[in-house]
Amino acid sequence: MYSKITGLGYYVPDNVVTNHDLTQLMETSDEWIRERTGIGERRFFTYGKETNASMATAASRQAIERAGLQPSDIEMIVYATITPDYFFPGSGFLMQRELDLIGIPVIDIREQCSGFVYALSIADQYIKSGAYKTILVVGAEIQSTWTDKSTKGRNVAVIFGDGAGAAVVQATPDPTHRVLSTHLHADGRFAEDLYIKEPGSSRPTRAATHEMIDEGGFDVVMNGNAVFKHAVVRFAEAINEALQANGCQSSDISLLVPHQANIRISEFVRQQMGLREDQVYNNIHKFGNTTAASIPIALCEAWEEGRVKEGDLVCLAAFGSGFTWASALIRW
Ligand code: UT7
């Protein structure tokens, strides 16, 4: 058996936050944000209206319907997020409850910006092993409550947005139209180049104290330049690895859907790979960087726009905190 994506869905909050809106909160400008990141606006969730799990549930319902299935057909959930509703258990359990799928296994993973590709790879292994036939793969994030929207946190705060994307992955005997391969990597030497320290357990005090908040332990720490430099190298490596594993060349790619980290990273990778603009899908201008949600949202949008068609060779590629990087090559 092989695995195949049979349904895609996404949900973004309708609360649009423009770069101009951010200039009311911090010293920044529309020009700086657009030039350095390509972002024009992003979505922030509304408290009381959305949660991480509720956005994922909406995205999943859409994906399940488009696969022509009922929620009760789902046999397993693999849910990637670094911004769960609770510290534990993960939001996958809340979504499972919402979809009334009591009893099926839920695998909650983090893996940061590479979360969706890691989750897809996990689903692919379970399907290839014959253990399950229908798996729901999710990436969902609420980043807006984690960022410091004062001038102090501006390098991070302008980048991130909220949203969720989902894919139904099903078993298929078809050796052609399927997930061809997935490739996962990590390098923990750079863990502190993009991280949130607290609430950490290896502390002399309780895992969360007022001092930790005052010292910025709950703030996102990002060495933007280091992330950028590693990302452009690792993205290309991961894409080339996927192409080589399947005897393909970059000119064979119908559509590359990269994690939406920064338009300059996407553009750099596009040029390195010798791809035309129409071979790369970007929507960072509308949604910012939604971490694990960015690839499934972009893939779903591309599919809705008719840019992912039967027979197309689609490449997913990600890089993020950890550091992690990953790719997937799919014959649609
Ligand atoms: O999914 C992975 C998530 N993370 C990433 O992908 C991050 C990758 N890195 C990046 O995208 C870029 O490094 C950033 C967009 C974060 C920053 O762009 P940069 O071109 O590397 O700028 P920089 O950090 O070198 O900062 C340049 C200047 C600094 O001022 P000085 O020291 O030159 O006076 C910053 O203080 O820009 C300043 N700056 C800002 N100015 C206006 C930093 N953030 C802002 C801001 N608005 N939001």
Computed CA radius of gyration, to the nearest angstrom: 19 Å
Give the total of domains.
2
**Order of strands across the biggest sheet?**
1-7-6-4-5
Order of helices and strands: EEHHEHEHEHEHEEEHEHEHHHEE
Question: What characterizes the major β-sheet?
Answer: 5 strands, mixed
Beta-strand percent range: 15-25%
Class by alpha and beta content: alpha/beta
Gross geometry: globular
Total DSSP E strands: 13
**Average pLDDT rating:** 97
Estimate the helix proportion, in percent: 25-40%
CATH architecture designation of the largest domain: 3-Layer(aba) Sandwich
Distinct ligand kinds: oxa(dethia)-CoA
Compute the separation of the termini in Å. 16 Å
List the helices and strands and how they pair.
Layout: E1 2-11, E2 16-18, H1 19-23, H2 30-37, E3 41-43, H3 52-66, E4 76-80, H4 91-98, E5 106-109, H5 115-128, E6 134-141, H6 154-157, E7 163-172, E8 178-186, E9 194-195, H7 210-214, E10 221-222, H8 224-245, E11 255-258, H9 263-272, H10 284-287, H11 294-304, E12 313-320, E13 324-331
Parallel strand pairs: 4-5, 4-6, 11-12
Antiparallel strand pairs: 1-7, 2-3, 6-7, 8-13, 9-10, 12-13
Helix pairs in contact: 3-4, 8-9
Bound molecules: oxa(dethia)-CoA (UT7).
